[in-house]
Amino acid sequence: MKLTGFELRRISMPLVSPFRTSFGTETTRDVLLVRAVSTEAEGWGECVAMSGPLYSSEYVDAAADVLRRFFVPALASVDSAVGVGPALSRFHGHRMAKAAVETAVLDAELRAENRPLARELGAVKDRVPCGVSVGIMDSIGELLDAVGGYLEQGYKRIKLKIQPGWDIEPVRAVREQFGDILLQVDANTAYTLADARHLARLDPFDLLLIEQPLDEEDVLGHADLAQQISTPVCLDESITSARAAAAAIRLRACAIVNIKPGRVGGYLEARRIHDVCVANDIPVWCGGMLETGIGRAANVALAALPGCTLPGDTSASDRYYRTDITPPFTLDNGYLPVPTSPGIGIEPLEAELAAVTTATEWLPL
Ligand code: OSB
Ligand code: MG
């Protein structure tokens, strides 16, 4: 496959409701899409970087900059997705930007060869059970209404965003109101090890897991915390690579891993993390970053791997957007279908994409 260039496209996607976490409130997703063009086919990748460096050090303007100035020029002699990682390995970090361009190349390559991503990754399911991530709210009543609505829609697992001051009481209220649903929490690094005794107060609520309670660099802290609470510790932000996953597992810093392909540099590394976890009997699940249909399609393929034994943050399109840029993913009894068409299996709708586009830039090779 001969790559001829990349298009960087920025789109502005208003969320159906503000999404509040311990690191900030998102009301509109400013998304960078990458379109790879080759002589045989085109492919799409979605960069999961957010507007500011609040979830991780990456942010969308930086991703566009590093792609334009360093990554795309370095891909001149690359002819397949497996070549992208090695061609970019001398550049440190910027995994979300690397993931976007590698996924675009992978999608183009798989389309050219008529192969679906799910099969390429080793998926074993044709539909995946879905969870939903519920933001911090102004009141417990508002939270119970939101959770009740999602359960009515069929979601199979609820994740509550927590932070100091919004943790024990919302969990207690949801547990009391909805009984023995699958329930977990995500702190996005809002605590320190000094909060261990406080976090142990979540123990009685039989949570599936607590996601990333401590700083992303505090892997040892998570290992210490895991000895002081009975809720299983799951890492998100800390797991930046298969090597990081192997180290965290060996240190007993996590019992479960959230895999986000964007965070770890792409679907090929995501697959390696999955394999490391399976080899160590560590359950994994596919996380999310409020993706459009482009990123969602590929995440659903990953969620269909055999080691993804917990429901992912792979919610339906209408949980995020009134109008998606692709045909929407809709929930069927709590499941999303795994795309079966070549590549990521979905394409943007021309009019919908045009309506939300704020800028495009063509980078020839
Ligand atoms: O920590 O999992 C997270 C969204 C943006 C950034 C970080 C996270 C999240 C979510 C939402 O929890 C997951 C989703 O539904 O896409
Ligand atoms: Mg998380």
From TrEMBL:
<dbReference type="GO" id="GO:0009234">
    <property type="term" value="P:menaquinone biosynthetic process"/>
</dbReference>
<feature type="domain" description="Mandelate racemase/muconate lactonizing enzyme C-terminal">
    <location>
        <begin position="140"/>
        <end position="232"/>
    </location>
</feature>
<dbReference type="InterPro" id="IPR013341">
    <property type="entry name" value="Mandelate_racemase_N_dom"/>
</dbReference>
<dbReference type="InterPro" id="IPR010197">
    <property type="entry name" value="OSBS/NAAAR"/>
</dbReference>
<dbReference type="InterPro" id="IPR029017">
    <property type="entry name" value="Enolase-like_N"/>
</dbReference>
<dbReference type="InterPro" id="IPR013342">
    <property type="entry name" value="Mandelate_racemase_C"/>
</dbReference>
<dbReference type="Pfam" id="PF13378">
    <property type="entry name" value="MR_MLE_C"/>
</dbReference>
<keyword id="KW-0479">Metal-binding</keyword>
<dbReference type="GO" id="GO:0043748">
    <property type="term" value="F:O-succinylbenzoate synthase activity"/>
</dbReference>
<dbReference type="InterPro" id="IPR036849">
    <property type="entry name" value="Enolase-like_C_sf"/>
</dbReference>
<keyword id="KW-0456">Lyase</keyword>
<dbReference type="GO" id="GO:0046872">
    <property type="term" value="F:metal ion binding"/>
</dbReference>
<keyword id="KW-0460">Magnesium</keyword>
<dbReference type="Pfam" id="PF02746">
    <property type="entry name" value="MR_MLE_N"/>
</dbReference>
<dbReference type="InterPro" id="IPR029065">
    <property type="entry name" value="Enolase_C-like"/>
</dbReference>
<protein>
    <recommendedName>
        <fullName>o-succinylbenzoate synthase</fullName>
        <ecNumber>4.2.1.113</ecNumber>
    </recommendedName>
</protein>
<dbReference type="GO" id="GO:0016854">
    <property type="term" value="F:racemase and epimerase activity"/>
</dbReference>
